[in-house]
Amino acid sequence: MSLRHSYTLIAPIYDLFINAATRQVRKNSLRALGDVQGQTILIDGIGSGLDIPFLPQGALYIGVDYTPAMLQRAIKKSVGKSVTLHVGDAMALPYPDGAFDAIIMHLILAVVPRPERALLEAARVLKPGGRILILDKFLHRGQRAPLRRLLSPLLGRAVTRTDVVFEDVLAACPQLTVVSDTPALGQGWFRHIAVEKTL
Ligand SMILES: C[S@@+](CC[C@H](N)C(=O)[O-])C[C@H]1O[C@@H](n2cnc3c(N)ncnc32)[C@H](O)[C@@H]1O
Which residues of the chain register pLDDT less than 70? Predict the structure, then answer.
């Protein structure tokens, strides 16, 4: 079963299970956008649009996701907001280089099969000096986490990987520099990470 199939099945119940658990960390992450007046911001892997209610006004937002059934939910939340939605692949984004002032990547880097590819793509479409706000679950280099590593090949095909090491992903993207990295949820398994395009 592909990720698109899984998320098509999950779409009707996604908000029920994820909304309450992630609401506060979403707000915390999005606060780092600061003043967005006049900016164009990508929400990469927007899913059902749980970030939409917390987006600061003043920017033009583009949301992209691979699963139309998830985007259907996002459409309802985007009514009256400056959010445009596209079907697309985070590992091959349908946007030109340097198109965005900032990028939001909540619960997407650990989901895609090739997170390095997705982060490189985000870096490509980001303007120099722009920031990517990441919220996701990552292991640290050398962290044992045997259960998460054992289950990852199975879970990764259906919902999300559980063995992604952020530092390994970042190593593939020399144009990005970590600005902040703080625990978010699950005793630090989920982290808020902000990176800046410096090259
Ligand atoms: C765990 S959900 C996160 C959704 C949303 N970002 C959130 O914070 O609730 C993962 C999302 O990634 C999407 N997805 C999976 N593979 C993708 C890909 N290659 N490109 C873009 N989106 C993808 C799924 O359709 C799903 O909506």
Answer: 1
